[in-house]
């Protein structure tokens, strides 16, 4: 992964505060990582409970599933991409009261 320069001013148009922007993107990255981990665990859970007879083929399938998830872009990159496209929804807790 190479270093990519971000135009913070362009991304900052919705929040008006770069610290809030970074906080929002980091929280979104954590959400993406958590969802990805749940999906991976769910897919790998399928292989639990089988006999050891086909261990080699199951290991290969598990490895393929893991590699599939490793090919995905890093959650931080995806969070930045979502912010650039305006796909991130956020709200301030004090506005709900």
Write up this protein.
- The protein contains four helices and no strands.
- The protein has helices at residues 8-11, 18-45, 55-70, 75-85.
- Helices cover 61% and strands 0% of the residues.
- The protein has 97 residues and is mostly helical.
Could you name the key traits of this structure?
97 residues, 4 helices, elongated
Outline the secondary-structure elements:
Layout: H1 8-11, H2 18-45, H3 55-70, H4 75-85
Number of DSSP helical runs: 4
Quick check: average pLDDT? 87
H-E string: HHHH
Provide the low-confidence segments as ranges: none
What is the SS-derived class? mainly alpha
How far apart lie the N and C ends?
Answer: 42 Å
| Residues in β-strands, percent | under 5%
The largest β sheet comes out as: none
Number of strands: 0
Q: Which descriptor suits the 3D outline?
A: elongated
Helix content: 55-70%
Taking all Cα atoms into account, the compactness measure Rg is 19 Å
Structure summary:
The chain is built from 4 helices and no strands. The model has no long low-confidence stretch (mean pLDDT about 85). It is about 60% helix and about 0% strand.
